[in-house]
C-alpha cells in the first residue's frame, strides 16, 4: 500500500481534486478515478473523501456513499468522515462511524481521531460516551496530548461538568493558548464569569500571550457580570497589545457594552468598525430594546442592509419580553407581509408568548396550523409555548390535546401543563399529572413545584400543598426558594391560617421577599385581619417603597371595616408620593383582532353600540334582582365621589358587552384583565352567562374564572 501511495501521489487527477470548485466537477473526477482504478488506492480515495466531506461544497450524503465504496479505508479516511460528522447537524453519526472504525479498521485510533470523536460527544452532551472516550485516551497512552486534552475540556464544559473540565486543564503538562482559551470560554459560558476573569489573571502571570479568542471569552465574562469598568479596561488592553480579532472580537465588545448599558460606548465602537455583519446590527437592536429604547431599536432595524430572521426575532422577542405583546404581534404581522424570510422556531415561540399575554387565541391557533402545514417538528420549546398559549387563552382542552399529541416531554412541557390546569382551577388534575410525570421518570424542577403549589392554592388543597412543599428537598432534591415560600404563605392565608403563615415567614431560612408579604397582605384582605395586614404592608413597603398595590390592598381592608380616616390617610400618602393605582384594562379578541378597554372607555369605534348593550345588560340584571355590591367601589375605585356608575363601567364589563355584540352565540367570550377581578364584576359575569346563555372565560392577574349557564368553576375569594 505504501508503494502504491507513492506511485499515485503525483497523479494529475489528485491535483485536480484540490482545485475543484463545485460538486459536479468533483463527481466527474470520481467517475474518472473509477474508470482507471485510481479510486481503489487508499491514498487517492482519502483525497476524494476529504473534498466530498470538508470542502466548501461538501455533501455528507455523497461523502458517505463514496466512503461505502472504498474496499479498505485507511485511518486518515475514517478520521476525515468522523471529523465531518462531528461538525455537522448529525454528530451522532460521527460516533457511529467511530464504532464502525473500531470494528473494521486494522489501525487503532490515533491522536487525530480522538479530538474529532470527542467533539461529536460534546455536541450531543453525551456524558457517558465522552467519559468512555477519556478512558480510551488514557489506555492508549495519549493522555498528555494537548490537542486531545483541549477537546476534553470543551467536552466536560458542554456537559456542565466544569469541575472535571478544570481538572483536565490543570493536569495538562504543557498548556498552549488553546488550553487557556478553552477553560476561560468554558467558565464564561458556564455562568462562572469570576472564575474566567481570575484565570485570565493567572494566564497573564504565567506569561502566556492571549489572542483574540481569549479576549472574546473575557468580554463575555464582563457582559455576564455587567462589569463595565473591567470591560473598558479589556477594550484598552486589546488596543494596547494590538490584538486583531476583526469582526468577531468587535462584536464581542459591542455585546459587552450593550449588556452593560453603555449605549454611547457601543455607538462609538460600531461607528468605527470597518466591517459590520448581521450580528453587529442585531446586538445593537437587542441592546436598545432591553433598555426600553424601542424607537432606537426600530431605527437600527430599519437601517440594517438586510434583515435576516435573527433580526426579526430580536425585535419580536424584545417587545414580547418587555411586556409589549401588541407591538410584538405587529412586527410578526410585518414579517409575514414582507415575505423576505420565513419565521423559524424562535419566531414562533416569541409570537406564541405574545399571544398568551394578550389572550389572542385566534392568532395562536393560526400559528399552530402554520406549524403543521410547514411540517415544523414540535420540539419541547414549541410544545411548551403552545400549551402555555392555549392555557392562558382559556382553551384548556386544546392545551391538553397538544400535550397528549407529543411523544417527547421534558420537564418544561410537564410543568407548563401543570400550570395550565392550575390556572383553570383543576388542582386535583394538576396533582394527578404530577404523579404521571414521576411515572415517566421526568425529574421535577423549581418551576414544576411553583406551578404545583399554585394549583393547590387555587383549589384550597392545604394539606396536599404542605406535603409537596415539605417533600421538595428531601424527596426531589429541589431547595425551596422565595416563590415556593410565597405560594405556601398564599395556601395557608387563603385557608384562613394567617398566624401559621406568619410563623412560616419568620422561620424560613431565606430573607422574605415582597411576594411573600404581598401574599400575606392579600390573605389579610380576604379575612379582614387588619393588625397583621398593617405588619405585612409595612414589610412590603420597606422592600418596595413605590408598590402602589400595597397601599390599595390595605386601603381595601380599611374600607371594608369602615375605617374611613385610615383610607383617607393612605390615599394622601399615595398622592404625596406621586403614586397612582394601576388602571384596569381588559382585552378581548374578536375575529383575530385584540381590542383593549379601560375603565369608562369611550375611545372604541363601536362605543355607542357598546354602551347601548351595557344599558340593556343593566336592565336585565335589575330584572332578576341584581343589586350592586358597592363595598367593592370603596375598595377598588380611588375617587371620592363614588357612584354606582363606576361599577357599571369597569373595563371587563365593556369587554363583555363588546363580545356580546360582536361574536356568535356559540363562541366563548375570552377576556384578559391586568388586575384582580372585583367581586361585583365576578357576580355580574356569572349572571350574564346565565341571562345570555354564553360561555365567558375571564383571566385576571391570578387565574381563570370560567362562567357557563350562571355557574363558575372557580372558588370565590372576595
TrEMBL record:
Pfam family, one: PPR
GO molecular function, one term: mRNA binding
Family listed: Belongs to the PPR family. PCMP-H subfamily.
Source species of the chain: Davidia involucrata
Keyword Repeat: yes
Start and stop residues of the PPR repeats: 74-104, 176-210, 277-307, 308-343, 410-444
Stored InterPro entries: DYW_dom, E_motif, PPR_At4g14850-like_plant, PPR_rpt, TPR-like_helical_dom_sf
UniProt record, GO biological process: RNA modification
Protein name according to UniProt: DYW domain-containing protein
Residue span, DYW domain: 625-718
Domain of life assignment: Eukaryota
Amino acid at each position: 500500500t505504501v508503494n502504491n501511495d507513492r506511485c499515485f501521489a503525483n497523479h494529475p487527477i489528485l491535483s485536480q481534486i484540490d482545485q475543484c470548485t463545485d460538486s459536479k466537477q468533483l463527481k466527474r473526477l470520481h467517475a474518472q478515478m473509477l474508470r482507471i482504478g485510481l479510486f481503489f488506492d487508499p491514498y487517492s480515495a482519502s483525497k476524494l473523501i476529504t473534498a466530498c466531506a470538508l470542502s466548501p461544497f461538501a455533501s455528507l450524503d455523497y461523502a458517505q456513499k463514496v466512503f461505502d465504496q472504498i474496499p479498505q479505508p485507511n485511518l486518515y479516511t475514517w478520521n476525515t468522515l468522523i471529523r465531518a460528522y462531528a461538525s455537522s447537524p448529525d454528530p451522532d453519526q460521527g460516533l457511529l462511524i467511530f464504532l464502525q472504525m473500531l470494528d473494521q479498521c486494522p489501525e487503532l485510533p490515533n491522536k487525530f481521531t480522538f479530538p474529532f470523536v470527542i467533539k461529536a460527544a460534546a455536541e450531543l452532551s453525551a456524558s457517558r460516551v465522552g467519559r468512555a472516550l477519556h478512558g480510551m485516551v488514557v489506555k492508549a497512552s495519549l493522555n498528555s496530548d494537548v490537542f486531545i486534552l483541549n477537546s476534553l475540556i470543551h467536552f466536560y464544559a458542554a456537559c456542565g461538568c466544569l469541575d472535571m473540565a478544570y481538572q483536565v486543564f490543570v493536569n495538562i503538562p504543557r498548556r498552549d493558548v488553546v488550553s487557556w482559551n478553552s477553560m476561560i470560554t468554558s467558565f464564561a459560558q458556564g455562568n462562572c464569569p469570576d472564575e474566567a476573569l481570575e484565570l485570565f489573571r493567572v494566564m497573564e502571570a504565567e506569561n502566556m500571550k492571549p489572542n483574540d479568542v481569549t479576549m472574546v471569552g473575557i468580554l463575555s465574562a464582563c457582559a455576564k457580570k455587567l462589569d463595565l469598568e473591567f470591560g473598558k479596561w479589556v477594550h484598552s488592553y486589546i488596543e494596547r497589545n494590538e490584538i486583531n480579532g476583526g469582526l468577531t472580537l468587535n462584536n464581542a465588545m459591542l455585546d459587552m457594552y450593550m449588556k452593560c448599558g453603555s449605549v454611547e460606548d457601543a455607538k462609538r465602537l460600531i461607528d468605527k468598525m470597518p466591517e459590520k455583519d448581521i450580528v453587529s446590527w442585531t446586538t445593537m437592536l437587542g441592546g436598545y430594546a432591553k433598555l426600553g429604547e424601542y424607537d432606537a431599536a426600530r431605527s437600527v432595524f430599519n437601517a440594517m442592509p438586510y434583515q435576516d430572521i435573527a433580526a426579526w426575532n430580536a425585535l419580536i422577542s424584545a417587545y414580547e419580553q418587555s411586556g409589549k405583546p401588541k407591538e410584538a404581534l405587529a412586527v410578526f404581522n410585518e414579517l409575514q407581509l414582507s415575505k423576505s424570510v420565513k419565521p423559524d422556531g424562535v419566531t414562533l415561540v416569541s409570537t406564541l408568548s405574545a399571544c398568551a399575554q394578550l389572550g389572542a387565541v385566534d392568532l395562536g391557533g393560526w400559528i399552530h396550523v402554520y406549524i403543521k402545514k410547514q411540517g415544523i417538528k414540535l420540539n419541547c420549546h414549541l410544545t411548551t409555548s403552545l400549551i402555555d398559549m392555549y392555557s392562558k387563552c382559556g382553551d384548556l382542552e386544546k392545551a391538553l390535546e397538544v400535550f397528549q399529541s407529543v411523544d417527547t416531554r421534558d420537564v418544561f412541557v410537564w410543568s407548563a401543563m401543570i400550570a395550565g390546569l392550575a390556572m383553570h382551577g383543576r388542582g386535583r388534575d394538576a396533582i394527578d399529572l404530577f404523579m404521571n410525570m414521576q411515572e415517566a421518570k421526568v425529574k421535577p424542577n423549581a418551576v414544576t413545584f411553583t406551578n404545583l403549589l399554585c394549583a393547590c392554592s387555587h383549589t384550597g388543597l392545604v394539606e396536599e400543598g404542605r406535603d409537596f412543599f415539605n417533600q421538595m428537598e428531601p424527596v426531589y432534591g429541589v431547595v425551596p426558594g422565595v416563590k415556593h415560600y410565597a405560594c405556601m404563605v398564599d395556601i395557608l392565608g387563603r385557608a384562613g391560617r394567617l398566624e401559621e403563615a406568619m410563623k412560616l415567614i419568620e422561620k424560613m431560612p431565606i430573607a422574605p421577599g415582597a411576594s411573600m408579604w404581598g401574599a400575606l397582605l392579600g390573605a389579610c384582605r380576604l379575612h379582614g385581619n387588619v393588625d397583621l395586614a398593617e405588619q405585612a404592608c409595612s414589610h412590603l413597603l420597606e422592600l418596595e417603597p413605590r408598590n402602589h398595590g400595597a397601599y390599595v390592598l390595605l386601603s381595601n381592608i380599611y374600607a371594608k371595616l369602615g375605617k374611613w380616616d385610615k383610607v383617607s390617610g393612605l390615599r394622601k400618602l399615595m398622592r404625596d408620593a406621586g403614586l397612582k393605582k394601576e388602571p384596569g384594562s381588559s382585552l378581548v379578541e374578536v375575529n383575530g383582532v385584540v381590542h383593549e378597554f379601560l375603565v369608562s372607555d369611550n375611545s372604541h369605534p363601536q362605543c355607542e353600540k357598546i354602551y347601548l348593550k351595557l344599558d340593556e345588560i343593566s336592565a336585565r340584571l335589575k330584572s332578576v334582582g341584581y343589586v350592586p355590591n358597592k363595598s367593592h367601589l370603596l375598595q377598588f375605585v380611588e375617587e371620592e365621589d363614588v357612584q354606582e356608575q363606576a361599577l357599571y363601567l369597569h373595563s371587563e364589563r365593556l369587554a363583555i358587552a363588546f363580545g356580546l355584540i360582536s361574536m356568535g352565540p356559540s363562541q366563548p367570550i375570552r377576556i384578559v384583565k391586568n388586575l384582580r377581578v372585583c367581586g361585583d364584576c365576578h357576580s355580574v359575569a356569572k349572571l350574564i352567562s346565565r341571562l345570555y346563555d354564553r360561555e365567558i372565560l375571564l383571566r385576571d392577574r391570578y387565574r381563570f374564572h370560567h362562567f357557563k349557564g350562571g355557574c363558575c368553576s372557580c372558588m370565590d375569594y372576595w
